[in-house]
Amino acid sequence: MDLVIIERWGIETMDTRELFARLIQCEAGGEGDNGMRAVASVVMNRVRTRTGEYGRYNTIRDVIYQQGQFNCARTVLGGEPNYQNVYNMNPSQEHYDIAQWAIDGGRLANLWQALWF
Fold first, then answer.
1. pTM of the prediction?
2. How far apart are CA 58 and CA 62, in angstroms?
3. Torsion of CA 28, 69, 88, 5, to 10 degrees
4. 32 pLDDT higher than 90
5. Cα–Cα distance, 18 to 24 (Å, whole number)
6. Would you state the pLDDT for residue 12?
7. How many CB atoms lie within 10 A of CB 105?
8. Burial of 49 (0-12, 13-18, 19+ CB in 10 A)
9. What is the torsion angle, in degrees rounded to the nearest 10, for the CA atoms of residue 54, residue 11, residue 14 and residue 10?
10. SS3 content of the chain, % helix, strand, coil (to 5)
11. How far apart are CA 19 and CA 14, in angstroms?
12. Which pLDDT score, from 0 to 100, does residue 9 have?
């Protein structure tokens, strides 16, 4: 199966919270609670900003799939398959809880408005 087809399938069918939990696991699953919360904080800060480079990305899905931002949102990197991607993740309740925490307005104190981590 073509990797682009897999990516296309995932975009259309995965709900936003599931996608967000998978991104958190993929980007920072080995970084502990604060590392995962940092990723979640930055994603939501980008969703909420209305100016600058990120001002036009107003949904979690838009932020995750913004070109060149998260390698975990890509199935191909540099012409090679990228197997560490959101489609190959199996998030635990912890990842869902952190995603929901951020959706509900939670942020790490030192990343309240940060757009990068």
1. 0.85
2. 7
3. 170
4. yes
5. 10
6. 54
7. 8
8. middle
9. -140
10. 60, 5, 40
11. 6
12. 46
